[in-house]
Amino acid sequence: MSETRNSILTKLRKTRDAHPLTPPASDFAPIEAKQWAEEERLPRIRRLMEAVHTEFLDATEADWPAVLREFLAHEGVGSLIYAPATDTGKRLVEGWDASSTALIPYDRPLEDLKPRLFDTIEAGLTTTRGAIAETGSLILWPTAEEPRTLSLVPHIHIALLRADALYDTFLQAMRDQGWAQAMPTNVLLVSGPSKTADIEQTLAYGVHGPKRLVVLVVHP
Amino acid sequence: MDGNAPDFAAASRAALADPQLRGNFRRAMDGLMSKRAAQFSDAGEWHGVRALAASVRLRALSKLPELLETLEETCTRNGITVHWAATTDEANAIALDILHKTNAKLVVKGKSMVTEEMHLNAVLEKNGIEVLESDLGEYIVQLDGTMPSHIIMPAIHLNTKQIAHLFKRKIKDAESREDAAYLTDLARRVLRAKFQAADVGMSGVNAAVAETGTLCLIENEGNGRMCTTVPPVHIAFMGLEKVVEKLEDVPPVISLLPRSATGQPITTYVNMISGPRKPGEKDGPREVHLIILDNGRSSIYADPELRDTLRCIRCGACMNHCPVYTKVGGHAYEAPYPGPIGKILVPQIEGLEKRGAMPHACTMCNACVEICPVKIPIVEIMGRLRVEAVKPSGAVKDGGAKASRTEAMVWSGWAAMNASPTAYRVATLAMSKLGNAAPSSLPMLKEWTNVRTKPRFASRTLHDLARAKGVPDV
C-alpha cells in the first residue's frame, strides 16, 4: 500500500507546486471576541443546556455527595457506577451506606462489565474539566481511572461541574488547558442528553447515549 | 444504481409528481433554513467566523501533501494504523482485510458519507459480514433498502407514518405507533444489543488534526461514540481533504458546521479520538485504523479552480437552500452526495459521461454560495463543469462527453450572425416574419415547448422600432 501512498502524495505535491495556493491569514479574533462576564457564564451554560433537556443540581464542596444521594433516591435510581480511584470517587463512597442506590465501582476492563453496564446499571458519574459558555458544553477528559463509557452507556449521566472552571469558548478552553501538547485517548464535549431529529424533524431524547444528563454544579 | 446510468431528468419528473415527497422536503427545508438563520443573526460574527473557517480550509489545502504526511506520522505515534486507498475498491479491500484478520462477523457503523461513496455495506454483506447502520436516519434508510436522501438527515424524505409502517414490517414485536419517541426508543433497544455484540465499529471523520493525530467526530445521538468506544476495533474512513493543520483549527469548523447544518449551536457530542486504548485504560477499542481515500480527489486538487470543491466540510446547508433539491429531493440525483455540493463533486469523481446532467440541475441562483460556511464558489464551479462537458481542458474525467455537433453548429451560426450586420438584419427580419409559423413540434424546439409556451416573435425588430423613433441605426 505504500506505493499507493507515495503516488497520491507525489501527485498532490506536483500539482500543488504547479499551482500554489496562498491562503488568507487565519484571524481568530471573531472567536476570541466572544467573552462573558464571570457571573454570566454559569447562567448562560444553564440556559443553553436546559433548552436541550439537561437537568441541574446545585451543591457545595461539603454537601455534593449528599445532594446526589438525595436526588438518586428521589428519582428511584437503583444503581450508580463510578470511578473508585479518583478523588471524586473516594469522596462519593464516604457515608454512602445509608443510601438506597447501590454504588458499583468501574474497576475492571469494559469487556468484564459490558452486560451489567448495558442492561442493569442505571446511572454513571463523571467529573468534568470545566464547561464552555458560548455553546453550553461540558468538557469531559476520560482517563484510565475514569473510563469514557461511564458517560455513554448508563441511561443517566451525572457530571460534576466546578462552578469556577468555566470558559468562554472551546478555543479558549483548549488554549488555557494546553490540549495540543497532551491530547488523551479521548476528549469529549457534551452539550446535553443523546438526541435525534431523524424522524420527521421531531426532537426525541435518549436515542443511543444517555437519556438524561444531570449536571451537579459544585459552587465554591 | 450501479449498472444503469442515472437519469436525472426522469428521476426528477417522478419526484415532482409525488406530492407526499415534495411536502416532506418542503417542510423540512423550511424548518432547517429558519433554524440556521436564527443561529447567524449577528452578521458581523457570521462574516468573521466564516472568513476564519474558509482560511482554515484553504491553509489545509495549501499544505495538503505535507499535512497528510504529518497526520500519518502523529496518528502512527498515537497507535493508529494509517492506510491509503487510491480507489473505493482499494478502500473496501483494506476494510475487508482488517475484518478478516479480526474474524469479524458483526459491524456497527456511525454515519460516514465516504463509505456511501464506497458502497461498503453491499461489499461487506456480499462477504457474509452483517453490517448495521446505527445513526437513526441511516438505520431507517438501511431497513428500507434505499439510500440517504440528505447527507445530514438521511431519512428526511420519509414522514413518521411511513417510518412507523417500515418498523412494523421489519422489527420483531414492533407496535404500529406513529410516535417519534416510541420509534426512537424501539431503535435504541435493537441497536444497543448490537453495540454490545459488535466486533468492529466504523465511523467517518469530520476533521483530522495533523498536529496531534486526532480524529474529530460530531453527532447528536451517541451512536458515533458507541461505534468508536465499545467494539474492540474501530475503523475510521476519511476523504484525503478532511485534514486540518492545528488543533486550534477545529473550533472554527465546529462553530459553523452544526449551526449551518441543523441550526443548533453545537452537536450533543464532539468526540476527539487520539488513539486506541492505552495500557491501564479500561475501555476504548484496542485497535484504531484510519483509511484515507483518494477516489478522484487528487485530480480535483490538480486544478486550481476545481480545487475549491475540496474545502467542503459536509454541513449540507447548500442542499437545504437549493430550490432544485427542495423540489426533487435527494434520491433524484441517484448519487451519494446530492444537492449543490453533489452537483459539483460527483461529476468530478465519477466523470461527465455518467454525471454530465448534474451540473445542469442548477438555476444558478447563488443561494448555496451565500450560505456556504467555507465560501465555496459552487456556482462558478458548476459553470466550469458545464464547459468541461462540451469543451474539455482535460481537467475533468470524461470531459467533452456531452459535446454535440448540432449544438456546436448552432453556436457557430449564432456567432456568425452576430458578427455580420447584413446577416443579422436578414436573420432577424426572417424571424419576425416567419418565426411564428414554425411549429412547436420542430425537433430542437420540442425540448423547450414540451413544458413551456413557445415565445412569440414581435412583428417588428428592435432595430426597426428604434429607427422609427429616429435613433440612428448602428
From TrEMBL, chain A:
Q: What domain of life does the native source organism fall in?
A: Bacteria
Q: Please report the stretch or stretches of sequence annotated as the LUD domain.
A: 45-218
Region (Disordered) residue spans = 1-27
Q: What is this protein called?
A: Lactate utilization protein
From TrEMBL, chain B:
The record's listing under PROSITE patterns reads: 4FE4S_FER_1, 4FE4S_FER_2
One matching Pfam family: LutB_C
Print the keywords alphabetically: 4Fe-4S, Electron transport, Iron, Iron-sulfur, Metal-binding, Repeat, Transport
What Gene3D superfamilies does its record include? Answer: Alpha-helical ferredoxin (1.10.1060.10), NagB/RpiA/CoA transferase-like (3.40.50.10420)
Under InterPro entries, the record lists: 4Fe4S_Fe-S-bd, 4Fe4S_Fe_S_CS, FTHF_cligase-like_sf, Helical_ferredxn, LUD_dom, LutB/LldF, LutB_C, NagB/RpiA_transferase-like
Q: Does the keyword Transmembrane apply?
A: no
Chain ranges of the 4Fe-4S ferredoxin-type domain: 302-324, 353-382
Q: Which PANTHER family match?
A: LACTATE UTILIZATION PROTEIN B
What name goes with this protein?
Iron-sulfur cluster-binding protein
Organism lineage string: Bacteria, Pseudomonadati, Pseudomonadota, Alphaproteobacteria, Rhodospirillales
